[in-house]
Amino acid sequence: MTILITGATGKIAQHLIPSLLDQGQPLRAMVRSPDKAATFAKQGARTVIASFEDAISLDKAFAGVETLLFLTPPHERASTWASAGLAAAKRAGVKRIVRISALLAGADGPSDNNRQHGRTDDELRASGIASVILRPHFFMQNLLADVPSLQARDTLYAAAGNAKLSMIDTRDIADVARSALLSPAWDGNTYDLTGPASVSFHEIAEELSEQLGREIRYMPVSPEALAQSIRDMGLDEWFAQGYHDYLEAYSRGWGDFTTDAVQAISGKQARTFRQFAREMLVPELFKNTQAA
Fold this sequence. Notes:
This protein has helices spanning 13-22, 34-43, 55-62, 78-92, 112-125, 147-153, 170-182, 201-212, 223-232, 237-251, 261-266, 273-291; strands spanning 3-5, 27-31, 46-49, 67-70, 96-100, 130-136, 155-158, 164-165, 190-193, 199-200, 217-220. It is of the alpha/beta class. It has two domains: 3-136, Rossmann fold; 138-167 and 194-256 and 272-292, UDP-galactose 4-epimerase, domain 1 (Alpha-Beta Complex). It is globular, with a radius of gyration of 19 Å.
């Protein structure tokens, strides 16, 4: 069974690909440039250079593939790219698709990104290809982007107010995806993937304070202010607006619920924020301290 991984350079695939290789699974990583291909070659993964905007390259990438890990990056053309990918999967005779979507994706989603995922999910369900749809929550690993402000000012900035959200470790998403790729037991279903408990950013700051041995403050800011920071970083208006819309929804409690899907599919308990902080975020903070 040959598995094709799209979104191979992302936060989920960086854990999924090594775990599949460790199990001796034949896989192919789809990338957009030769330099990315070289990185995977060092890991022992076969690669193929392709783009969702190039049907010929997609046909080459999908040839001989039986199972597809299907993920498209956030973009204003994401659903168009996904349609091209599904068409290529049909032409290649792909038998099964494990789709990485977005939390509660659908026509009533809070952002264009979420609504595009919903359209793609509907298209996949109607395609006739056996599939399972995984809809993960906010990634704990997104907090690694806060390392500079945590290091410089001992301050965590977020636009969630006092709301809680059940963010998930991307290692758990990878574990679920691996199980779904290797077994059809969950085909025909859609699963929202969350962490084991909802946490507020106040609680995140408290946990970091305990682990670091110094006070970390949580500074709530508005969704508008964080969206403007996205613009200031040079990203386009679609990203900035999508960021704003998600944050506004989170601040209203949209992400405050949990499911048991991680344990049900992977057989492992979902990692807590405390585990993520101890294993990934705090070491990164200490690493930056030593570098300084």
